[in-house]
Design brief:
Pathway: Amino-acid degradation; L-alanine degradation via transaminase pathway; pyruvate from L-alanine: step 1/1
Domain Aminotransferase class I/classII large: 95-219
Number of helices: 9
Distance between the termini: 35 Å
Number of domains: 4
Protein name: alanine transaminase
Cofactor: pyridoxal 5'-phosphate
Subunit structure: Homodimer.
Shape: extended
Order of helices and strands: HHHHHHHEHEH
């Protein structure tokens, strides 16, 4: 593969979250943690620590937010169910009873966590998501219409890849998460920015939104 033979859309993709600043931060981190690295000495830097804030990951090393313990306990039991099947007396000294009961309940639905599931996601979990939506929004939700994805980025990317054709316009808020423009570039679609209003709590302005659509239509971009 070369730059001349790969999908040309890839060359237009820019993902600033993993871009130049993030790469430079990683180099500084390596320099600070590996004193024998060639080049500039670590003690020449005006700082002794790098905190990467380019992604929403407060549990990363350096920020060290403590994760919610309950889910870590449940997941660890699901990874090794023999603990609550045959060593209940031992794990009760470590795990609280509610974590053990939730792990048992989910194990009945899921089975092995190392196995493939339905492409939409586990039905029992989709039912819980549907119930949450119903209680939050006051409208019925169908578990069969819910698709679980490996994070928000995967979901957004899948939707944009399915919904857009080459040259289509897609409204995106500014400021925006770079995933949007990167994915639009990959599918050869056109980003149509609309600016959020800082003085109004970063809310969306209907007037600004309509103006962005008018400009796109004027330029002949399908919206």
């Amino acid at each position: 593969l070369t730059r001349d033979t790969i999908n040309p859309a890839v060359l237009e993709v820019e993902y600033a979250v993993r871009g130049e600043l993030a790469l430079k931060a990683d180099k500084y981190h390596q320099l600070l943690t590996s004193p024998l690295a060639p080049g500039q000495a670590a003690n020449d830097l005006p700082f002794d620590k790098v905190v990467t804030a380019n992604i929403g990951n407060p549990q990363q090393k350096g920020l060290d937010q403590v994760p919610i313990t309950f889910w870590r306990q449940v997941i660890s039991l699901l990874e090794y169910p023999d603990l609550f099947k045959n060593h209940l007396d031992i794990i009760r000294q470590i795990y609280p009873e509610d974590a053990i009961e939730r792990a048992k309940e989910m194990h009945e639905e899921i089975g092995s966590t190392g196995a493939y599931t339905h492409s939409k996601g586990i039905l029992g979990i989709r039912k819980r998501v549907a119930k949450f939506i119903e209680e939050r929004d006051g409208y019925p939700a169908d578990p069969e219409s819910i698709y679980l994805t490996a994070g928000a980025s995967a979901g957004v990317s899948s939707i944009l890849n399915i919904a857009l054709q080459k040259g289509d316009g897609c409204l995106i808020p500014i400021p925006q998460y770079p995933l949007y423009t990167a994915t639009l570039a990959f599918v050869s679609a056109v980003p149509l920015p609309y600016y959020l209003q800082e003085i109004e709590g970063w809310s969306m302005s209907h007037k600004v939104l309509i103006e962005s659509i008018k400009q796109a239509k004027k330029a002949g971009t399908p919206v």
